[in-house]
Specification:
mainly alpha; disordered C terminus; disulfide bond; metal-binding; Peroxidase; EC 1.11.1.7; iron
């Protein structure tokens, strides 16, 4: 009974905080905020289309640890290790774009726009530029005061659907939300180390993973080999082998054809609980894009700080001086 009350209280607090976010939050305090963010994202996208995948990953990794509070942006110090330096976050990138946006916003509207909102809006804009849905996103988040690498616990690439779903359910997301959000892999890449075992010695069998198309496995083996490498020398491959920089629904068609790169991706098409949703998205691009917009808005509401909670950082990489004791 006590556990049920705590769960209901948590849901109420999440709903209360989310309700304080609103579309156009900065209309009266920094009217050009979203325009400035959009222009700088478009500039970067013009020279690097992979920024869409980078921002999606950053946003996901931020929201799944302490909520969407930009805690992933904090740099470690000599005495403390921040989220940025946790193993799952070592391949997260795009931080310099967030810095550039923050600098421009501080010049236009000092101490007004949070780093958490910058990540949320920049990700939304990058998805739209890549051909994905364009949607209004509520703003009004504030930045967190804690960033601890020990708190980073994210679903790994080798999980089954039943193993991965509890990570999402704990954040108030549904199975449909999980399948939809993993569709972001339509524009992503993965280091060989995340799936290398599937190519030649799956789970110690001495054979490739039979759930992967044999021709794809052979091709990837030529790229990845059988020897693990340090992360900075580990090759990457596209998770969507066909339309790698376009935000579409082809990811779902590929995993239905046994061409999922990551084990969790392939499992989406095989598990009885997720396969029908995968089939629906594979045949209906509009359904996927609408569901994706809804799931992104929902994810961006996870454990947000609003009102007088947290702070508005001057520099996204460090807490404001008065708050350093909280780190």
């Amino acid at each position: 009974m006590e556990k049920k009350i705590l769960i209901l209280l948590f849901c109420y607090l999440v709903h209360f905080a989310s309700a304080q976010l609103r579309v156009g939050f900065y209309d009266s305090t920094c009217r050009r905020a979203e325009t400035i963010i959009g222009q700088l994202v478009q500039k970067r996208f013009g020279t690097d289309r992979s920024i869409t995948a980078a921002l999606l990953r950053m946003h996901f990794h931020d929201c799944f640890v302490r909520g969407c509070d930009a805690s992933i942006l904090i740099d470690s110090t000599k005495s403390t290790s921040s989220e940025k330096d946790a193993g799952p976050n070592l391949t997260v990138r795009g931080f310099e774009l967030i810095d550039e946006i923050k600098k421009a916003l501080e010049a236009a509207c000092p101490s007004t726009v949070s780093c958490a909102d910058i990540i949320t809006v920049a990700t939304r804009d990058a998805v739209g530029l890549a051909g994905g849905p364009r949607y209004n996103v509520p703003t009004g988040r504030r930045d967190g005061l804690v960033s601890d690498s020990a708190e980073v616990n994210l679903p790994g690439p080798s999980l089954s659907v039943p193993e991965a779903f509890p990570f999402f359910r704990a954040k108030g997301l549904t199975l449909n939300d999980m399948i939809t959000l993993l569709g972001a892999h339509t524009v992503g890449v993965a280091h060989c180390g995340f799936f290398q075992d599937r190519l030649s010695n799956f789970q110690g069998t001495g054979k490739p993973d039979l759930t992967m198309d044999s021709a794809l496995a052979a091709r990837l083996l030529r790229t990845c080999g059988t020897t693990s490498r340090p992360l900075n020398r580990d090759p990457t491959v596209f998770l969507d082998q066909n339309t790698s920089f376009i935000f579409d629904n082809q990811f779902y068609n590929q995993i239905r054809s046994k061409k999922g790169i990551l084990q969790i991706d392939q499992q989406l098409a095989l598990d009885r609980s997720s396969a029908p949703i995968v089939s629906s998205f594979a045949s209906n691009k509009n359904a996927f894009q609408q569901n994706f917009a809804n799931a992104m808005i929902k994810m961006a509401n996870i454990q947000v700080l609003v009102g007088k909670a947290g702070e508005i950082r001057k520099n996204c990489r460090v807490f404001n001086p008065k708050s350093r004791k909280g780190f």
